[in-house]
Amino acid sequence: MALFRWRKGKRKPGTLRKATSNDLAHLEEWASSRRGVEAYFEPRTNVTEATVVLVAHDGEWTRRRVDSLESLQKFGAKRSIPVYEVNRVGYPQRMRDYTRRLKLQRKRDGQA
Fold this sequence. Notes:
By secondary structure, the protein is an alpha+beta fold. Helices cover 38% and strands 16% of the residues.
């Protein structure tokens, strides 16, 4: 019985996944299909690599890994998206409101 054996090609325990081209493609598609997008950089922690939260005008949001703040700033400059450091400015209220609305809607729909 091999409970703790890692499959070939899998990451070792304790290693963090880096940003991939799929992450960047998702961010590009997401940002181009919404208006009023802002980027909020989240620095690396013990649990995850650096990430970005993109927030649209209505509070809809998505999170993906990024290589660094510098690469995110280049991404933002290329697309005219403002980039903020979440440790300095926090998350926008519209993001919290959107998440609350989704939660209430799921509860009403019986998807709790």
